[in-house]
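User: Fold this; tokens only.

Assistant: Input:
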Amino acid sequence: MFERFTKDARSVVKGAFAHVEGAGGGQVVEPEHLLLALLDREGSRGSFALAALGLGERRESVRQALGVARRRAGLSQAETDALAGLGIDVEEIVARVEEVHGVGAMAGDRKDKGWWSGRASFGRGAKDVLERSFRVALAQRDRHIGDEHILLALTLRPGVPAEVLADHGVTYASLVRVLYGGGEAKAG
């Protein structure tokens, strides 16, 4: 599948690995890392689409929202709200765990995980996003998978990245309008 990735899409994948390795905690690339790598990009179809939807100047807000979700062990706000409906206060749990084990304990950001000596790999969620990006490209009749297809796939997969993007006005429908003009003509 990677032979069909454009240079921009490959850069997103490499950037996701860099985010994992830079964090020093986890060794698994997740959808959040793909989104962070997309936010780092400039001059690509995905970055132009994000800018057209007003996300260019609000990228730091997206990064902060991803960080908040990471502290909640990757739970989306919808999942946090559902647990609150059951009487479970996720923020209280996070506070208690961090009190005992240190800040970032639920996020896997602890620096004392030096036992890992291997290379980061794709988590199930990231694999799903990359597979969806392939299907998105086919559905749009695009021959190659670009970073815009990864971005579209992130909006289709339920979870923190889709929720954070939607909270910032970036949805699958809005991206399709910007990238493809409603499906008729391609932008860029």
